[in-house]
TrEMBL record:
Residues 11-227 form the Glucosamine/galactosamine-6-phosphate isomerase domain. Its EC number is 3.5.99.6. The active site is at D68 (proton acceptor), N137 (for ring-opening step), H139 (proton acceptor), E144 (for ring-opening step). Pathway: Amino-sugar metabolism; N-acetylneuraminate degradation; D-fructose 6-phosphate from N-acetylneuraminate: step 5/5. One of its GO terms (molecular function) is glucosamine-6-phosphate deaminase activity. It comes from Robertmurraya siralis. It catalyses: alpha-D-glucosamine 6-phosphate + H2O = beta-D-fructose 6-phosphate + NH4(+). PROSITE patterns: GLC_GALNAC_ISOMERASE. InterPro entries: Glc/Gal-6P_isomerase (IPR006148), Glucosamine6P_isomerase (IPR004547), Glucosamine6P_isomerase_CS (IPR018321), NagB/RpiA_transferase-like (IPR037171). This is Glucosamine-6-phosphate deaminase. Keywords: Carbohydrate metabolism, Hydrolase. It comes from the Bacteria.
């Protein structure tokens, strides 16, 4: 079931997501969180840090798995998702870094790395709450249109539109990696609960397709309609066409 929570703006989306994430962490013993990168969850992570500083949440017992990582970037590269997570969240809360997991995009054997990551997720049990953003083409994680719904953690070739959208973080478009490692769609769908965050007019068409379009591999996020527990927090900007 997909439940929509409509909010005014990005701040309200971030606050709502923050409450849900904290409620999950405080309710579950040894919670396992699935985390996302991109611009969308930045506000959520800021709010979480505020709540941590107020003593409202602790990450002592939290395990995390990120959705994806660029291929070819070292863990400490300014543009790696590992670095993003450290700077936007992990450095500011009491999480134990040994409980933090991201695929290693600098691994020599990428196929083996995908299998290792998938196994690590399985060993941790199910992801209790997976935070998701959505690309303008409906990608989740880095699962581009056409990715089989049955996919597990795998290597992907990034679409030109995705590289362009993410080039704002890099010096030039040529610096954006052409490949990434991502949890597969089947991996994401195994999470017990999914929280999809969508903000801004550039996502309006994607929201319209998510609500009205077919469930099809051409639009990866559409599979979420088959998940038993998905909450979509969407702001007015992203709702202009819906
Ligand atoms: C990126 C990430 C995704 C993210 C999406 C949307 O490429 N790999 O995990 O959800 O694209 O990004 P943004 O939130 O910046 O719009």
């Amino acid at each position: 079931m997909m439940e929509f929570i409509k909010v005014n703006d990005y701040q309200a989306m971030s606050e709502r997501a923050c409450s849900i994430m904290i409620e999950t962490i405080n309710r579950i013993k040894n919670p396992v969180l699935g985390l996302a990168t991109g611009s969308t969850p930045e506000g959520l992570y800021q709010k979480i840090i505020e709540k941590f500083n107020e003593g409202k949440v602790s990450f002592q017992d939290v395990t995390t798995f990120n959705l994806d990582e660029y291929v070819g970037l070292d863990r400490e590269d300014v543009n790696s998702y590992y670095r993003y997570m450290k700077e936007k969240l992990f450095n500011h809360v009491d999480i134990k870094l040994e409980r933090v997991h991201l695929p290693n995009g600098a691994a020599a054997d990428l196929e083996a790395e995908c299998q290792r990551y998938e196994k690590q997720i399985r060993q941790a049990g199910k992801i209790d709450l997976q935070i998701l953003g959505m690309g303008i083409n409906g990608h989740i994680g880095f699962n581009e249109p056409g990715t089989p719904f049955s996919s597990r953690t795998h290597v992907v070739e990034l679409e030109a539109s995705t590289r362009e959208a993410n080039s704002r973080f890099f010096p030039t478009l040529d610096d954006v990696p052409t490949q990434a490692l991502t949890m597969g769609i089947a991996t994401i769908m195994e999470s017990k609960e999914i929280l999809l965050l969508v903000s801004g007019e550039q996502k309006a068409e994607a929201i319209a397709r998510l609500t009205d379009g077919d469930i099809s591999e051409d639009f990866p996020a559409s599979i979420l309609r088959n998940h038993p527990n998905v909450t979509v927090i969407v702001d007015e900007g992203a709702m202009v066409l819906a």
